[in-house]
Amino acid sequence: MAQAGVLPEYWSDIDQRLLTFNKLMTTKFAIGQTPKEVVWTLNKARLYHYIPVVPAEDRHPVPLLLVFALMNRPTILDLRPGHSFVEYMLARGYDVYLLDWGVPGLEDKELKFDDYVLDYMPRAIRKMKALSHSKEFSLLGWCIGAIITTIYSAMRPDDGLRNLLLLTAPLDFSRQHELTFAHWVDEKYFDVEKIIAALGNIPGEMIDYGAKALKPVENYVTNYCRLWDNLDNPRVVESWHAMNTWVTELVPMAGGVYRQLIVDLYRNNRLMNGELKIRGESVDLKKLRANLLTVIAEADHITPPCQSEPIVSKVSSTDKEVYRVNGGHIGIMAGSGAHKQTWPHIDEWLGARSE
Amino acid sequence: MPAENGNSKPIDSFEAFRGMRDAYLDAMSKVMINAVNTDEYAQASGALLNSTLTLSAPFRQALDKSMVMALQQLSLPSRQEVAALAQRFSNMEMRLDDMDAKLDRIVNLASSVPPPSAKTDSEAKRPAPAAAKVAHQASTRKR
Lengths: 355, 143
Description:
The complex is a heterodimer of chains A (355) and B (143).
Chain A: H1 2-26, E1 36-42, E2 45-50, E3 64-67, H2 85-91, E4 96-100, H3 113-132, E5 137-142, H4 144-155, E6 161-167, H5 180-184, H6 192-199, H7 204-213, H8 216-229, H9 234-248, H10 255-267, H11 270-273, E7 277-278, E8 281-282, E9 291-297, H12 305-308, H13 311-314, E10 320-325, H14 331-334, H15 342-351
Parallel strand pairs in A: 3-4, 3-5, 5-6, 6-9, 9-10
Antiparallel strand pairs in A: 1-2, 2-4, 7-8
Helix pairs in contact in A: 3-4, 6-10
Chain B: E1 3-4, E2 10-11, H1 15-36, H2 39-73, H3 79-112, H4 121-125, H5 129-142
Antiparallel strand pairs in B: 1-2
């Protein structure tokens, strides 16, 4: 007799799961909720200042500027209340700024690293220094944001940069056989000029497909199976919803910078070889002398560890550290274990160098 | 929905199915990761992209041309014209930003000069060295 009641319960459970699943797929989670104000704009770029939560006298005097990649929104740094890197750093007394590159339009298709590094970064940094009344600052670059911050740090070593934090930084492209992307964009198969001529800016969907196709089964099947298994767990559901909202907010990449990424970096490794030129000026990594922390994700399939570690031997910094974390490209900063491992280490390292 | 036994410990009748599914997905994942790392995959995806762009090019160009003509007839700006205008706005924004930087510098310099009230009466009456020098030169020239 007990079995008679079980079947309707199964159906009711499946019905409930379908409703939750549908809601997750068709709605957006409110990400990036930490209070902030726009303090500077240029073209589509915005510099945000997060409202401090610690009294001025207890705050670190050196402000921190966060620079994320170009092809996703920077809201991953402020994913959801209670699980936000920005919120965590504010609570530990940092004066936090975020440079949001915005969404490039057709008029921005010629934007290159040159523009981001020499037009946008110095201006945003000048504004941040003026507002924070500090001559020194710290920079945190993640993914392509780490490429931009590294080039900037090497080209403008006297701008007051004290600390440079690089997260999963794709800087060295010498070990081509370990880089699936390098395989795909080999000039034998991939006509980058044809793509840029046809599309102008590279659509976010195309870049997203590239990232997901590195692990197609995980991204297109396993991810949803795991979600289905945990649809009755509100914590997992909320976390998945926030992450899915971020993942689906795609940003196109300016054609000019895409060309540099493929030709100068993926194919010719010009940054590490000392051959990269930004507006005619050579980028010499030896000029980078800020304190350096590079965070490597051991299971990163987008930026394998071999791409991030060699920077340490190329710079002149005397205070430098490589910190390895178990996790993936995004997981080390936004995963469920980030607040126990990566964030505390960043706080510990940066706090000691921000007085 | 899990059924429950006498000790109220849930029994998940789908546990075995899930185990098999996960094992299959793990195996498939390894196969697919290896597959996308091959030269054949790189070649095939490159060829697919290339042919898509080649085939769509004539249609895209024809559409662009006709759109430009239609917009001209309607006295409306084309996409390229709007983009060019936006680029000019960006240049103006940069000029404004440079002016903002200069203003900041002026304000900083001005604030670093001590206010007049901080000077003593005798200092306030005495002309500044540079002004005194100019006044002296002017007086000697007159002579």
